[in-house]
Amino acid sequence: MQRDPQKNNNSTGQENKLFGTFFIAIAIAVAVASIFSEIIFLNKLPSYYNAVSWIGSFILTFIFLLYKERDILWSSLQSRMKNSIKWPMRAKIINGMCWAGPFAAIPLLPSLFPYLILAGIGSGNISTYLLLKKYGDVNNSKSNNNENNNSGAGREQIVVGLISLTAIPIVFEVHTGMLTAREDMAILLSRILISFAYAAGGIYAIMIKNKNNVNEGNTATSP
Predict the structure, then answer these.
(1) Per residue in 152-191, is it b (16+ CB within 10 Å) or e — as a string?
(2) 118 lies in which domain range?
(3) Mean of per-residue pLDDT scores for the chain
(4) Global pTM?
(5) Considering its fold, how many domains does the chain have in total?
(6) Domain assignment of residue 53, yes or no
């Protein structure tokens, strides 16, 4: 049974838009929670306020931006997770180390927190994108895989990853410069840059969707 290419492109375009909105929601939640965390730190409020601010920021942002699309989003996330389950064991190990390694090192090297969190977000997103691209044909035929690669699905992750890794020397300059005495500013800056990275990735994903729609429209009107 042959699939309709236009229907497949529309589905991928909708997924790009959905993940774009998802990444923008993450960006907003991280930015809002980071600002509240800094306020809590400066006013020396109880530490559990941090947990409340982070959890509350994510819940409220996701309800506001993604509540109506929650079922579709969950289905798309499950689809990507099912694909990653079928990766070879070495790919799973690499991806797990890229995500968990830097975060696991934070308790051992707390002074490097701003860099480790950027390294975890950066290497995790880049490895996930590269592995999804390499093993994208696990659940799809070769032709479908080529269509998905060309659609740009998942490329928002490499945007997030590259910006996060590029931000490490920026935070280092701030941390070792005139703001050395304000370590909290380095942490705040790293979180704001992560927020910026996710926002850029989300906008990029939505732009891909819009570009695909324009190309489809041009194809449909061509003789």
Answers:
(1) bbbbbbbbbbbbbbebbeebeebbeeeeeeeeebbbbbbb
(2) 5-73+87-221
(3) 82
(4) 0.83
(5) 1
(6) yes
